[in-house]
Amino acid sequence: MPRRVSLPGAEELFRQTGQASETADPTVEPPRRRTANGQRPQVPSPASASAPGSASGSASGSRRTSGRVKHDEKMTVYVTADELLELEHARLRLRHEWGVGVDRGRVVREAIAIALADVETRGAESDLVRRLSGP
Predict the structure, then answer these.
(1) pLDDT in tens, 62-88
(2) 93 pLDDT exceeds 60?
(3) 101 falls within a domain
(4) Would you say 121 and 59 are in contact if contact means Cβ atoms under 8 Å apart?
């Protein structure tokens, strides 16, 4: 019996995280998680991703978050234990109640996009400017 183990090649281990490759089969649908009641959540089409009222659709409609892609830049943000707990609670609630499975970084990037779009559209009347200006 040989002692060497056959390992898969790099192309089998690593996949693209950006756009789907041209060789991918467009008829194969990726698996989706089930919600608490056993139903599969509806996945919005790319056309409806920037619909008004959605997290990525802003009032101006021009600001979009990066979503799940490889990021080249990094920023460290310090939060209190309570803020981190609230963020994790929001992430779990998104997954449990609405079937939206995202990580904390994605939640933060969406919140940043919403705040910046609000500043662009409402200016001095935006929530961000009012909160940072003080009482």
Answers:
(1) 556 666 678 788 999 999 999 999 999
(2) yes
(3) yes
(4) yes
Pick the closest to residue 16 from 70, 74, 66, 65 (CA basis). 70
The alpha carbon of 87 is separated from its chain's Cα centroid by a whole number of angstroms, namely 14
- Is 87 part of any domain? yes
Give CA 103 to chain center in angstroms: 7
Helix (H, G, I), strand (E, B) or coil at 57: coil
53 Ramachandran zone, left/alpha/beta (phi>0; psi -120 to 50): left
Q: Is the pLDDT of residue 103 over 80?
A: yes
List pLDDT tens digits, range 5-36: 877 777 777 766 655 545 555 554 555 555 55
- The number of domains in the chain is 1
Residue 108 in any domain: the answer is yes
